[in-house]
């Protein structure tokens, strides 16, 4: 095998079981938390972790939550998240978590137990072909068949997970080899002839890009999750400030550019602001950074490309470039490295001045549409209002996790993220049920931070069992439940596209969430009056060591606007009825 | 357009399924796929015949390169290359067929590698289109069985795919 790991020459090898090797590898990687759930195939590993005091094991209530929590821990810190599950059902329960991390390029190492090597293929108890099942939703995976391979494989798994375009890596370890004994040698470095991600951008391309940016009349910067994952936010701010260009973020990219800055035009895409989508559609030079022009972002690609513009695209993954939209200046490389080079080249340019006053005038006219305006109410709680107050009460500095649906969009639209790695949500896979385990991962990442989980009554019930984990570890998370008794986003689509036939989108037989929270020893609050929203939020966040479940009873019929309907172009947004009538009145 | 893609990959369990899985997951065509170990036992060489627009082929190459086990990828259509496929055809060798099959085999520079009472087995090597032409040329009802390996390809002259 040419892909090799180099053993440390200075540390003398120590003989130990495979299970001890696994535990020692994780400690060599300086892992702080392992999220997991024990079972037959991983009993040796659980015995080994009982006897160590390096990392802390967090016992969840369902393997899916273990992977989500590890995922959020990684998103919040930038470190590799680690989950440990048993074979068979433990492994399959982890799949949704793995696929979620894969779609959003989050570095994870998931260790799964497997039946003993001689039992593989025998339809043994709790056997599943984990390598086969996870192949389409991992960056890479391994089945370890010899005890001596455990350490080099785990070393490679961490290396692959965090380098290049990050992603989850599964290491499947049969039970018998965790009992076998071998010398423990943890390799110091990894070299793989088949895997060498390009990190440094091509200098000629970067120079070309800078020239193009300086010549732009209607420039636009569009950044995605890759900017956050690649820790490029500070360099991007520097570039945008130097050029005075407008910036938009994707759902995954929020916090990549400070939302309260005047150059920020808001999120773009299906539920983006009017000004962001219009500027994206009408710009003449577009700088895309760590973003992938996906269907929720640019709408109909034919409509998008019908407008002529020159596109510069920085991405660490070559396959993301020119996938949905043809790019003019591709730059393959790590976003931080490329943006640093770009800033240096720009600083050397004699004339850094750009003539874009007219463009800003146009953008400010679009801003005047005030597409995020909504009808306020004294009698019923508007979900947008809750998020606005949440932002105020937490001073814009909380970790906000969300589930998937209308509440997710409102959180993205109305909570102004000024820092990267603060907005934790499932953008790619759109996994309902991530919110609560994501909040757990964030709270472990930063135990003194304010962590809020914005959720709906549909999503929260998909991993509600984690209320127990939160109780066990005393996590002071605040759940912001926007309870409209509907699967809101499904209902919205049924209203728009299925003539109000609300097929199976009503949530009946909901629990009393206050009592449910209390039964786990948490604090429960039910808020029905708009006048009580701010006070309740303050009261909840004042309980610094308490988990508070806040059940906000909200307007049942509120919709998310603006909206780019499926198959429509970015500039063909539907604005809220209120905005529409106001615009008519203005004329 | 039809493309022949050559690649070198780590000779490890599951490597083939990663490539096959990629094609099915992303809806790419596979006309044929052949794989075997190289002179270096740690490496396998694969030839994939596929078809698609330029954009699709570009994505296929990028996605193949993204697989961790794949060491190198080459689109043979980017330059001069040779392709060969092996076919074994069992045909009727009774009555008029006895001479006709021998004659057709000679014309296509094939070899009869097995003779039974009522049949010949013909071995034929060439480009895929040559093998297609042979099938077209003989009487379809005379064919008892065909086995094709799928194309293997190699660049001409100095075009070498090696680690």
From TrEMBL, chain A:
The keyword Amino-acid biosynthesis applies. Binds 1 thiamine pyrophosphate per subunit. Binds 1 Mg(2+) ion per subunit. Its cofactor is thiamine diphosphate; Mg(2+). It catalyses: 2 pyruvate + H(+) = (2S)-2-acetolactate + CO2. It is an enzyme of class 2 (transferase). Residues 16-130 form the Thiamine pyrophosphate enzyme N-terminal TPP-binding domain. Residues 403-551 form the Thiamine pyrophosphate enzyme TPP-binding domain. Pathway: Amino-acid biosynthesis; L-valine biosynthesis; L-valine from pyruvate: step 1/4; Amino-acid biosynthesis; L-isoleucine biosynthesis; L-isoleucine from 2-oxobutanoate: step 1/4. Signal peptide: none annotated. Its EC number is 2.2.1.6. Keywords: Amino-acid biosynthesis, Branched-chain amino acid biosynthesis, Magnesium, Metal-binding, Thiamine pyrophosphate, Transferase. It comes from the Bacteria. Residues 206-341 form the Thiamine pyrophosphate enzyme central domain. CDD domains: TPP_AHAS (cd02015), TPP_PYR_POX_like (cd07035). It holds the Pfam family TPP_enzyme_C. GO terms for molecular function: acetolactate synthase activity. Belongs to the TPP enzyme family. NCBIfam families: acolac_lg. This is Acetolactate synthase.
From TrEMBL, chain B:
One of its GO terms (molecular function) is acetolactate synthase activity. It comes from the Bacteria. Residues 4-78 form the ACT domain. Keywords: Amino-acid biosynthesis, Branched-chain amino acid biosynthesis, Transferase. Its EC number is 2.2.1.6. It holds the Pfam family ALS_ss_C. Pathway: Amino-acid biosynthesis; L-isoleucine biosynthesis; L-isoleucine from 2-oxobutanoate: step 1/4; Amino-acid biosynthesis; L-valine biosynthesis; L-valine from pyruvate: step 1/4. The keyword Translocase does not apply. It catalyses: 2 pyruvate + H(+) = (2S)-2-acetolactate + CO2. Catalyzes the conversion of 2 pyruvate molecules into acetolactate in the first common step of the biosynthetic pathway of the branched-amino acids such as leucine, isoleucine, and valine. NCBIfam families: acolac_sm, PRK11895.1. Belongs to the acetolactate synthase small subunit family. Dimer of large and small chains. This is Acetolactate synthase small subunit. The lineage of its organism: Bacteria, Pseudomonadati, Pseudomonadota, Betaproteobacteria, Nitrosomonadales. The gene is ilvN.
């Amino acid at each position: 095998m040419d892909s090799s790991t180099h053993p440390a020459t200075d540390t003398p090898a120590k003989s130990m079981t495979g299970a001890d090797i696994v535990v020692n590898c994780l400690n060599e990687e300086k892992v702080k938390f392992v999220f997991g759930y024990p079972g037959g195939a991983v009993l040796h590993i659980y015995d080994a972790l009982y006897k160590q005091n390096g990392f802390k094991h967090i016992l969840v209530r369902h393997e899916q939550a273990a992977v989500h929590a590890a995922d959020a821990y990684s998103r919040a810190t930038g470190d590799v998240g680690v989950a440990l599950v048993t074979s068979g059902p433990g492994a399959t329960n982890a799949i949704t978590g793995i696929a979620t991390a894969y779609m959003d390029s989050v570095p994870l190492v998931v260790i799964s137990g497997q039946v003993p090597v001689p039992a593989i293929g025998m339809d043994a108890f709790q056997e599943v072909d984990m390598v086969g099942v996870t192949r389409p939703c991992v960056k890479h995976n391994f089945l370890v068949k010899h005890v001596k391979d455990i350490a080099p494989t785990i070393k490679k798994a961490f290396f692959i997970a965090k380098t290049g375009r990050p992603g989850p890596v599964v290491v499947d370890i049969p039970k018998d080899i965790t009992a076998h004994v071998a010398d423990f040698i943890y390799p110091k470095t990894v070299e793989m002839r088949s895997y060498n991600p390009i990190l440094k951008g091509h200098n000629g391309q970067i120079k070309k890009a800078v020239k193009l940016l300086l010549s732009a009349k209607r420039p636009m910067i569009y950044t995605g999750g890759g900017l956050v994952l690649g820790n490029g936010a500070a360099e991007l701010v520097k570039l945008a400030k130097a050029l005075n260009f407008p910036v938009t973020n994707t759902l995954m990219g929020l916090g990549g550019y400070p939302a309260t800055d005047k150059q920020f035009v808001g999120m773009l895409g299906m539920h983006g602001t009017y000004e962001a989508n219009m500027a994206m559609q009408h710009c003449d030079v577009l700088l895309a950074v760590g973003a992938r022009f996906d269907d929720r972002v640019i709408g109909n690609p034919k409509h998008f490309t019908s407008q002529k513009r020159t596109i510069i695209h920085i991405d660490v993954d070559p396959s993301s470039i020119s996938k949905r939209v043809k790019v003019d200046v591709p730059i393959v490389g790590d976003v931080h490295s490329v943006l640093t080079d770009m800033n240096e080249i720009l600083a050397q340019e004699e004339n850094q001045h750009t003539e874009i006053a007219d463009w800003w005038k146009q953008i400010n006219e679009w801003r005047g549409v005030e597409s995020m305006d909504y009808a306020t109410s004294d009698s019923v709680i508007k979900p947008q209002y809750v998020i606005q107050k949440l932002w105020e009460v937490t001073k814009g500095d909380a970790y906000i996790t969300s589930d998937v649906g209308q509440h997710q969009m409102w959180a993205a639209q109305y909570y102004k993220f000024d820092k990267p790695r603060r907005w934790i949500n499932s953008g790619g896979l759109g996994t309902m049920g991530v919110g609560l385990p994501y909040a757990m991962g964030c709270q472990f990442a930063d135990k003194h931070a304010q962590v809020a989980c914005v959720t709906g009554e549909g999503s929260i019930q998909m991993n509600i069992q984690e209320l127990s984990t939160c109780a066990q570890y005393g996590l002071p998370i605040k759940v912001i439940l926007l309870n409209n008794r509907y699967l809101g986003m499904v209902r919205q689509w049924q209203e728009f596209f299925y003539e109000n036939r609300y097929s199976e989108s009503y949530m009946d037989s909901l629990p009393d969430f206050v009592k449910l929270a209390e039964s786990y020893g948490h604090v429960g609050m039910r808020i029905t009056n708009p006048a009580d929203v701010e006070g309740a939020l303050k009261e909840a966040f004042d309980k610094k060591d308490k988990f508070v479940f806040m059940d906000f009873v909200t307007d049942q019929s509120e919709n998310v606007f603006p909206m780019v309907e499926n198959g429509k172009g970015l500039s063909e947004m539907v604005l809220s009825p209120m905005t529409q009538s106001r615009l008519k009145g203005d004329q | 357009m039809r493309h022949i893609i050559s690649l070198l990959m780590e000779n490890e369990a599951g490597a083939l399924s990663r490539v096959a899985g990629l094609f099915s997951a992303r809806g790419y065509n596979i006309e044929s796929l052949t794989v075997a170990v190289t002179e270096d036992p740690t490496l396998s060489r694969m030839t994939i015949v596929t078809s698609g627009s330029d954009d699709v082929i570009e994505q296929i190459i990028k996605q193949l390169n993204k697989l961790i086990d794949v060491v190198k990828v080459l689109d043979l259509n980017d330059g001069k290359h040779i392709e060969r496929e092996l076919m074994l055809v069992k045909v009727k060798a009774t009555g008029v067929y006895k001479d006709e099959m021998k004659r057709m085999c000679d014309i296509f520079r094939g070899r009869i590698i097995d003779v039974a009472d009522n049949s010949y087995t013909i071995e034929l090597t060439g480009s895929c289109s040559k093998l297609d032409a042979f099938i077209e040329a003989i009487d379809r009802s005379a064919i008892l069985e065909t086995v094709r390996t799928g194309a293997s390809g190699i660049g001409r002259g100095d075009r070498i795919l090696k680690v």
